[in-house]
Amino acid sequence: MTTPRHTYGRGRLAAAFGGLAAATLAVAIAVPAAAAGSTLQAAASESGRYFGTAIAASRLGDGTYTSIANREFNMITAENEMKMDATEPSRGQFSYSSGDRIVNWARQNGKQVRGHALAWHSQQPGWMQNLSGTDLRNAMLNHVTQVASYYKGKIYAWDVVNEAFADGSSGGRRDSNLQRTGNDWIEAAFRAARAADPNAKLCYNDYNTDNWSHAKTQGVYTMVRDFKSRGVPIDCVGFQAHFNSGNPVPSNYHTTLQNFADLGVDVQITELDIEGSGSSQAQQYQGVVQACLAVARCTGITVWGVRDSDSWRASGTPLLFDGSGNKKAAYTSVLNQLNAGGTTNPNPNPTTPVPTPTTTTPPPTGGGSCTATYSEGQKWGDRFNGTVTIRANGNISGWTSTVTVRSPQKIIATWSGSPSWDSSGNVMTMRPSGSGALSSGQTTSFGFTVQHNGTWTWPSVTCAAS
Ligand code: G3I
């Protein structure tokens, strides 16, 4: 097993810029440190993790909802719109309009998408509920193939199979029409998903799998261990993490996450919500975040909705924002815990990226010019951070910077700027969050995380002044 690198707290930023000259270092720390960590996504990105939310297409017209979602989260799950009943309402007739609304909103705002869910005993369309045997198996596999192919290249991770294990003490599979097609239905679904979208991470996702001593947790663990030993393509395990007073966050949560990660899969907290209020709720949220950050392969956390009023169990006020969009105590405890740090993802074989030259634009008529300089930040097994420092040569009233990454690299998170994207997704145009005015010699910085997908070439950067 690779020993994860441990980095802690705000000092991580300094480590990220270790190779820079002192003067540049001072600037690089001064600017991003003020903004990095001030939102959930920025704070999580510092250790190479994402922070996500479930989004409902029906709420995308609500400005309070979208502005919180855009500001705080960089991983998006469709709450209902990519489920089987939504995407294949009639057999062989696929409907992606609601799912597309969410995927498009996410991509336009520079966010990644978790796909939820390809195969599940619940929320099946009526026609599927009535099938059995080979006919159902083929219909399920066709569904997995069609939906994963349609969204190919746009999904960070798929919940390939959802909730297939029974509650209670059996530790076995849940009875369902899919289970009755044969015990190998889960691995068949994973193989179909891998064939359809080889680059998406493939997850098994379930609830009540948080307590290490519970039979259901052990049942899922045994299946994942078996899949890994037989080469069934599984990359991750999703822990839904729906908690309340009857089902509180277990004290052995970290053990559970670590034991699964030790099987050689990523673990993700996929649908977090905790009923309650005040400091008790805040403490439980903190415990969940702490457990994830203590596990190098816990790659991200998703909460199951934005405001309490958006929740599937709104009366339990289980989320991080109240119905008016105000940050709750739970929000502050999550943010503080993310900023307190923990493990980063292991970097088993880092390669030094090839630097690309700095470019300087000619001065615009009547004003100064700007220079964009790229500096490398932290690196992990599958991603690296970068910072672009913008320097004004003469007074400028604003700036625009482009960051071009080499396909198949993808920028998966940004901070300290307002990004937009070209249609390829490889060219990001970054604009200042505020006015962007700089006097001669002044600098500012923004940052981003690149999922390298095997390519370590540094991004090329430019700056245009206005
Ligand atoms: O959109 C229709 C609306 O037109 C209709 O008037 C209304 C009346 O029934 O229903 C609306 O659809 C509801 C839908 O949520 C959107 O609000 C469905 O009935 C309702 O069943 C559905 O509930 C979803 C539930 O999954 C279904 O199983 C919840 O929103 C969603 O949060 C929840 O999410 C699940 C995860 O997928 C898996 N893990 C558990 C989690 C919580 O149950």
TrEMBL record:
Biased composition (Pro residues): 347-365
Chain positions covered by the region annotation Disordered: 338-368
Assigned EC number: 3.2.1.8
InterPro entries xrefs: CBD2 (IPR001919), CBM2/CBM3_carb-bd_dom_sf (IPR008965), CBM2_carb-bd_dom_sf (IPR012291), GH (IPR017853), GH10 (IPR044846), GH10_AS (IPR031158), GH10_dom (IPR001000)
Keywords: Carbohydrate metabolism, Glycosidase, Hydrolase, Polysaccharide degradation, Signal, Xylan degradation
Catalytic residues (positions): 271
GO MF annotation terms: endo-1,4-beta-xylanase activity; polysaccharide binding
PROSITE patterns linked: CBM2, GH10_1, GH10_2
Broad enzyme group: hydrolase
GO annotation terms (biological process): xylan catabolic process
The CBM2 domain, residue ranges: 363-466
Residue ranges occupied by any GH10 domain in the UniProt entry: 34-337
Signal peptide: 1-35
Catalytic activity: Endohydrolysis of (1->4)-beta-D-xylosidic linkages in xylans
Similarity annotation: Belongs to the glycosyl hydrolase 10 (cellulase F) family.
Protein's name according to its UniProt entry: Beta-xylanase
Annotated organism of origin: Cellulomonas biazotea
